[in-house]
Amino acid sequence: MNTSYTTFESPLGQMTIQANDLGLLGVWFETQTTQPKELGKKEPNHPILVLTIKQLRDYFSQRSKTFDLPLAAKGTVFQQQVWQALMTIPFGETWTYQQLAEAIGNPKAVRAVGLANGKNPISVIVPCHRVIGKKGKLTGYAGGLERKAELLKLEHWEPD
Question: Is 128 a catalytic site residue?
Fold first, then answer.
């Protein structure tokens, strides 16, 4: 299946967005190393890419707290399970890695959950930035801890 991509200048830096006809495959900040080497054809008018940019603009301008996009990220069954659980973390709230492990029914898989969280290819939309360390500390974000802090600030989260 053909993949398409475009770029978007967000308030937190340039983002690359990739999709196919089934859905969104990835959203990465320019510094993220998890981007695929091959992005496909640059097609800024692809309907899913256009819709993604519109919803990202609404999010960053605080006109919307949710995303409604078809997702087609590739990952293992376990990664998919973790990414689905991430989608249930409410806007403006954070969970610990332990809470995320419990949400997927595997409370002993904290480290594996952390690794799957770090492999999330759909930044911001699949809100891996809402996962923090158990003592309320900002930890691990492929887009950089500064961006994670800015995303949480945008969502009006305040550390304890």
Answer: yes
